[in-house]
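User: Could you write out the 3D structure of this protein bound to octanoyl-coenzyme A? I've included everything you need below.
Assistant: Certainly. Input first, then the structure.
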Amino acid sequence: MSSSVVISGSGLWKPDFSISNEELVVAYNAYATQFNQINKLAIEQQELSEKPLSSAEFIEKASGIKSRYVYVKDGILDIDRMRPMIPERAEDELSDQAEMAIHAAKDALKAANKTADDIDAVIVACAYTQRSYPALAIEVQGALGIKGFAFDMLVACSAATFALHRAYEMIAAGTAKAVLVINPELTTPQVNFCDRDSHFIFGDVATAMVVESAQTAKSEHVFEILSTKAVTEYSNNIRSNFSYVSRANDVDPFGEDKLFHQVGRKVFKEVCPMAVEHISEHLARHQLGSENVSRWWLHQANINMNTLISRKLLGRQPDLQEAPIVLDTFANTASAGSIIAFYLNHKDLQSGDIGLLCSFGAGYSIGSLVLKKR
Ligand code: CO8
């Protein structure tokens, strides 16, 4: 396999709307108070649990999140609704996620100095796709006028890195000449805004990257992919049971278990050591130690997780330039987090500098790429 496969451009699109912790907590607490009043008797008789109140200070301290971008704000803060109000689009209109994807894709194409004619494969990789078929990637391919082939793939938090791995392999194998990897993370429809433990975690965003051969790359900031590494280990600690089978199961297709839920503490405890081991092994493959890495573009799920992982790897507290955090304004954007960190923090690196891009989360799944600035 040739090693001269590069990332030649990245793109980001963020929605026009955002919600601060304070706004979110005011709405949740009003909802919880109303719920507790309406269900007072059932709560007293222990048929229902009282809804505990949330706090903006807890959220920032426990997660590092201050606000999140949302595709549609209407409905999320309405205590009689508690979910975004996204009008259904007709079959001949561009779908929501395709629209998000196209914004990010155009930004990445521009950064890579490419047009649609230069691309011959499109991967849409994210935590959820809004329908099963036709693939969103094929819709995006059609809308951008790209020839070749396209497909969707779902790997929760690691969808973006795992898709970059596939793009790397396609270029190295010669089955594509330039791949557009896009991550339209529309998470808010799957968030349980009535659940105190998880109502604050996620935001919406779209990211994209162009992967091609070094020989065809003609952009200002080119990063060679030195290698990729992936691992998965089955865990039920982060789960969504949302399913096309619910109709046949005769269950509520929108029940609580059909939305994102997790055992956050366990995830924290189990994923951090996995990520440290994974990254150390990946760097060792290149006879590199943590001291050789100029930039850490880590998954963005929780600031305390990132701090712990970075400290274990570096033996000291990293500064924000070395291991950038985007959680404060973006929150957890599923697989897009490490790509946003890259997008906002790569132009200052010098030729020869090494960077490590890594996702970790649901599955469990961990995906990393060792990158070298050309
Ligand atoms: N306000 C006030 N108090 C709260 C709140 C709140 N909102 N939430 C919890 N508390 C309370 C708890 O009830 C608990 O009280 P007590 O001690 O009395 O029991 C106390 O605060 C401490 O609670 P926790 O132990 O749960 O708090 P933590 O410090 O562990 O923080 C976190 C909770 C932030 C959830 C933390 O555990 C965490 O981030 N863990 C890692 C989670 C993670 O990485 N998850 C992966 C996410 S999945 C992903 O990245 C992609 C999935 C696919 C996309 C899905 C899109 C929808």
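The mean pLDDT is 97.
User: Perfect, thank you.
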